[in-house]
């Protein structure tokens, strides 16, 4: 599993100070979370189509970068340099937003930022566990994830404070990008001085006991960390991922398409129909993230108490009902301030459901795969979710343009319904295959 037989003594508690670098990087990411719809709608005065295009291209850049940086880091067997590239590249990219004058320049900078930001993601979990004893891996990864989450929520809180202080100035949006850039610079400085290259290197494909999950469901694919990624080269022959497992992963991507069709234009609806300002949008995102954090441990407990089938069916059914019910609001022109509060709370509350869906999916993928294909299967899962976000975000703007927000939310409900029914069939198929195998064993 490791390329050196003797694992060195870790830096004890001192070496974990480099976690501060990821707190700051996630703070910057959290600060930027609502910025695509805000910047395009309020600063450039463009419509929801450009919000979808910008979100999808940023997601595409992220997915490609995750695979590329992850494979390069495995091949060169270095970690720290990719963290530094990610933080410094993010700093430089975000500063360029200050000089953007057109929507196309802005989207190009977003793509560049996402490409550099992803350099630090594939190596982050490896850095965490390469200096720990194997028995402590799960605990250490959980601590690192929790710390990263604190940074993201802190960034959203900081953004809310900034826009509340100066709610009337559109230029505050560019200043937020500048602040985010310098937060990344702080992360770079901390990583440069506190982070040490691990002397023991782990092969990503050989570590089967860990998996990662995104605590937050984001409009663009920008996770705090991803451990398993798809390898571009060196695929082992003769080891195949099961058809049912691949179908389940694809259906997870279908569900993500439906989710993004709903979530991508949602903040734009608040700006278009309710004249929502920056503080209201930041509040909405902050509530969504806070509910995700609150439900994270609860969802793990719930999944252990019930079957995996039931654990995902109920939250998916809740989302379908909420998506369909939300379509009524713009259809009947319910655009008063009281309804604005309601739609903000709806978006925030839906964050509570995400942990139940995300943890159930990744647990199902882990259990359905065998020890030889588990790492690859989770890599496919991460990548397919990214593809789902790209597709959902891209088409959402066009759907709103042609059939309105109500039509978009209904369409999202239908897509989630397809994924819901498909997931039921796949799980039934897995159970049926297992029963057939048991019968064959009994007969033989």
CATH homologous superfamily title: MFS general substrate transporter like domains
The CATH architecture name reads: Up-down Bundle
- Tell me roughly what share of residues is in helical segments: over 70%
Number of strands: 0
Question: Which range does the strand content fall in?
Answer: under 5%
User: So what's the CATH class?
Assistant: Mainly Alpha
Counted by DSSP, the helix tally is: 15
Order of helices and strands: HHHHHHHHHHHHHHH
CATH topology-level name: Growth Hormone, Chain: A
How many domains in all? 1
Instruction: Give the radius of gyration.
Output: 22 Å
Query: Which class do the helix and strand fractions yield?
Result: mainly alpha
Query: Which of globular, elongated, flat, extended, rod-shaped describes the shape?
Result: globular
Detail the topology: elements first, then pairings:
Elements: H1 19-32, H2 35-43, H3 48-76, H4 80-96, H5 103-117, H6 121-129, H7 137-165, H8 172-194, H9 243-263, H10 266-274, H11 278-305, H12 308-326, H13 328-331, H14 337-368, H15 374-443
Q: Explain this structure to me?
A:
- By secondary structure, this protein is mainly alpha-helical.
- It has a single domain, classed as MFS general substrate transporter like domains (Growth Hormone, Chain: A, Up-down Bundle).
- It has 15 helices and no strands.
- It is globular.
- The two termini are 37 Å apart.
Keywords:
Growth Hormone, Chain: A, globular, disordered C terminus, 15 helices, 74% helix
């Amino acid at each position: 599993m490791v390329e050196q037989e003797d694992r060195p003594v870790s830096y004890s508690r001192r070496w974990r100070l480099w976690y501060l670098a990821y707190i700051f990087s996630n703070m910057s990411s959290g600060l930027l979370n609502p910025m695509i719809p805000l910047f395009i709608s309020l600063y450039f005065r463009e419509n929801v189509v450009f919000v979808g295009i910008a979100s999808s291209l940023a997601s595409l850049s992220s997915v490609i970068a995750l695979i590329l940086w992850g494979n390069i880091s495995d091949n060169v067997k270095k970690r720290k340099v990719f963290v530094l590239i990610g933080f410094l590249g993010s700093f430089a990219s975000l500063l360029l937003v200050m000089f953007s004058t057109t929507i196309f320049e802005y989207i190009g900078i977003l793509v560049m930022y996402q490409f550099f930001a992803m350099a630090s993601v594939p190596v982050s979990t490896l850095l965490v566990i390469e200096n720990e004893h194997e028995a402590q891996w799960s605990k250490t990864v959980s601590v690192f994830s929790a710390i990263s989450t604190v940074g993201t929520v802190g960034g959203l809180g900081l953004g809310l404070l900034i826009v509340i202080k100066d709610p009337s100035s559109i230029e505050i949006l560019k200043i937020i990008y500048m602040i985010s850039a310098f937060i990344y610079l702080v992360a770079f400085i901390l990583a440069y001085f506190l982070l040490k290259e691990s002397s023991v290197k782990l092969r990503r494909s050989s570590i089967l006991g860990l998996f990662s999950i995104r605590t937050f469901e984001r409009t663009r694919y920008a996770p705090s960390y991803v451990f398993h990624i798809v390898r571009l080269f060196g695929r082992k022959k003769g080891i195949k991922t099961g058809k049912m497992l691949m179908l389940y992963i694809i259906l997870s991507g279908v569900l993500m398409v439906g989710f993004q069709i709903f979530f991508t234009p949602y903040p734009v609806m608040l700006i278009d129909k309710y004249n929502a300002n920056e503080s209201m949008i930041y509040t909405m995102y902050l509530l969504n993230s806070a509910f995700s954090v609150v439900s994270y441990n609860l969802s793990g407990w719930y999944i252990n108490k019930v079957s995996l089938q039931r654990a995902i069916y109920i939250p998916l059914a809740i989302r379908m009902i909420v998506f369909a019910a939300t379509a009524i609001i713009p259809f009947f022109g319910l655009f008063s301030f009281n309804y604005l509060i309601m739609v903000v709370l709806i978006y925030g509350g839906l964050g509570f459901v995400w942990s139940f869906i995300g943890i159930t999916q990744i647990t199902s993928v882990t259990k359905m795969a065998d020890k030889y294909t588990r790492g690859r299967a989770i890599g496919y899962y991460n990548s397919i979710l990214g593809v789902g976000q790209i597709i959902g975000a891209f088409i959402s703007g066009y759907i709103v343009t042609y059939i309105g927000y109500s039509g978009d939310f209904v369409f999202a409900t239908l897509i989630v319904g397809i994924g819901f029914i498909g997931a039921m069939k796949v799980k039934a198929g897995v159970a049926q295959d297992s029963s057939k195998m048991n019968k064959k064993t009994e007969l033989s």
